[in-house]
Amino acid sequence: MELKEAFLLALQSLWSNKLRSVLTLLGIVIGVSSVIAVVTLVNGANAFISTKFSSYGADVFTVSKMPAFITSAEDYVRFQKRRDILLPDYYYVLENCKLCTGMGAQQATIGKIVHDTQSVTDSQIRGYTWQMPLLQNLNIVEGRGFTEADEEHASHVAIIGTDIVDHLLPGLDPLGQELHVDGVPYTVIGVSEKQGSTFGASQDNWVGVPLTAFQKSYGTAKTVTIYVKASSAGPPLEAAADEVRVLMSSRRHDAPNGLQSFELDTNNTLVGFASTLTKSFGIVAGAIALISLIVGGIVIMNIMLVSVTERTREIGIRKALGARPNDILNQFLIESGTMALVGGVFGVIGGIGVAEVVTLLIGFPSSIALWSVIVGLIMATATGVFFGVYPARKAAQLDPIVALRADM
Predict the structure, then answer these.
(1) What is the C-alpha separation between 66 and 79, in angstroms, rounded?
(2) Is residue 305 packed enough to be buried (19+ CB in 10 Å), middle (13-18) or exposed (0-12)?
(3) CA 309 to CA 274: how far, in whole Å?
(4) What is the CA radius of gyration of the chain?
(5) Does residue 197 have a pLDDT over 80?
(6) Which pLDDT tens digit goes with each residue over 332-381?
(7) Are 83 and 263 in contact (CB under 8 A)?
(8) MacB-like periplasmic core domain: which residues (predicted)?
(9) Can you state the angle between helices 235-251 and 87-96, rounded to 10 degrees?
(10) How far is it, in rounded angstroms, from Cα 240 to Cα 321?
(11) Do 158 and 209 contact (CB within 8 A), yes or no?
């Protein structure tokens, strides 16, 4: 009953002084909201990154001019100076790699798609070798994918994303329709499965054409990204990656034991690097949240000191009726912990709300982690108890005779 009574007294105190309670708990609410929002967004980003890269398959790796992630302007300039990876490089690896079970190459640019009087701008134009849709796990829900003949003859055929269908071909059977891609006509032979949006950007506003046809329009002197599939993940992938690394190095005359003129990335490399970035972001945001919690705890301590002064006579009466110092100490600790817990609850709600709003506004992925909710509530309660120790001890050490003489 003592625990329940102290808990109810704390809630009653919060309710009877609403404005003071709001101001008191603001720091706790902001701190916990920050923790929950950051963890929810980071968790969502990690899940998206892992899903995005793993969609290529754990047995697929890429060879490109520049790495997927660049952390400094100096690195960007250095990577830009590398020679482009060209289509003959791809064909060389394709012909000589013994441990590769699948291989494709891709180029991309931004362009305008037109059908009759309708048009879509800022669409991604992708040049694919015939195996690329399979290597990227693009599911063709209507029609067919590319064939070796399409690539060999630079056929003017196209696979499109669902945004192109919705904006240019509403109500029409997309198969067989003619689209003009930056002025060049292509016949639609396939429609990809809807992929949705990421970070506010649609993943379905694209047109894929054979890479040979793409290069006739945009030139051959542009770097390509090579996708390589091994027989399986683990040692087979590592063996295939080593073979491709040797082939590319010899093809490009890289110095032995020197710097490579290309980047070879596996899914684990990309996911690990991205996770490191998001963890660093989470640590910085967590430090900011910790500062908010400390500020909130100091405010709680201040309010509890005021409460001790206001309730001096009450404390004296309780001691006169037999309450021990530990009883008074526990009462005020429970009250301060309860106040912080209430702030933590509102902080959890606020943090989840902030993360969901960010997701709705810009499409940033979010995923609620139950452990973060529990940790947020524990942190809030612990902050309240920690900063409530001094006021509680002061209340417990009051002389009952002096306390009874205090004014009401």
Answers:
(1) 6
(2) middle
(3) 53
(4) 32
(5) no
(6) 888 888 888 888 899 899 888 888 888 777 767 777 878 888 888 888 88
(7) no
(8) 21-244
(9) 130
(10) 82
(11) yes
From residue 209, how far is each of 2, 31, 89 by CA, in Å? 74, 50, 20
Question: What is the model's pTM?
Answer: 0.64
H or E, element range at 77: helix 73-80
Q: What is the pLDDT of residues 18-46, one digit of tens each?
A: 777 777 778 788 888 888 888 887 777 77
Alpha carbon distances (Å) from 242 to 2, 65, 229, 238, 266: 69, 17, 13, 6, 12
Burial of residue 43, with CB atoms counted within 10 A of its CB: 0-12 exposed, 13-18 middle, 19 or more buried = buried
Distance CA 123, CA 111 (A): 5
**What single-letter amino acid sits at 316?**
G
Look at the alpha carbons of 228, 229, 234, 235 in this order and tell me if their dihedral is positive or negative.
Answer: negative
CA 378 to CA 340: how far, in whole Å? Answer: 10
Across residues 175-183, what is the average pLDDT? Answer: 94
Beta strands in 347-391 (DSSP E): none
Question: 124-147 pLDDT, tens per residue?
Answer: 999 999 999 888 888 899 999 999
What is the domain partition of the chain in residue ranges? 2-50+273-404, 83-261
Tokens linked to 402: 């002096």
- The answer to whether 271 and 68 are in contact (CB under 8 A) is no
DSSP percent split of the chain into helix, strand, coil, nearest 5: 55, 15, 25
